[in-house]
Write a structure and sequence with these properties.
By secondary structure, the protein is an alpha+beta fold. It has a single domain, classed as Chemotaxis protein chec (3-Layer(aba) Sandwich), CATH 3.40.1550.20. The protein contains 6 helices and 8 strands, in the order αββαββααββαββα.
Amino acid sequence: MSAEVAESAEKAGKAAPSVLFGRFDHALDPKKRLTIPRVWRKAMGEPDYVFVMPDRQKKCINLLPKAEMDVILAKLQGKALFDPRLNHLYQTVASMSEQLELDIQGRIRISDRLLQFANLKTTVAMRGAFRMIKLWAPEALAPDDEINQAELDAALAEVGL
């Protein structure tokens, strides 16, 4: 994150946006809790809670820091709260999402329903996605040590870099 972004956010009275890089594979503990790596917890500002929801297109779970959920909620705030169509849409998204408290060791307990959706059984491949974390079944991804330059090049070109 650039110093300008952090300074701008601080002046606006907001936390600087999270920047989440890397891949970590963590086992679910016997109680099916997942530990969020310390480096990511620090990047998110040591949150008390995070949000998780199924991905729109892939069989993975999106983990959003509070700051990212605040952006989503701000977009919804201007919408008609009692519009029946919008209310149904809000319920659809909210009922499939969870707000999860982190324990003192940085663990969360994702519901069995979401774990089953993403086929997360024993190990979770956690991939940084700049502003969120994607939670995958490891077998759904390339091996951790594989670097696909063609995929990297296509991704950078697509975002204009």
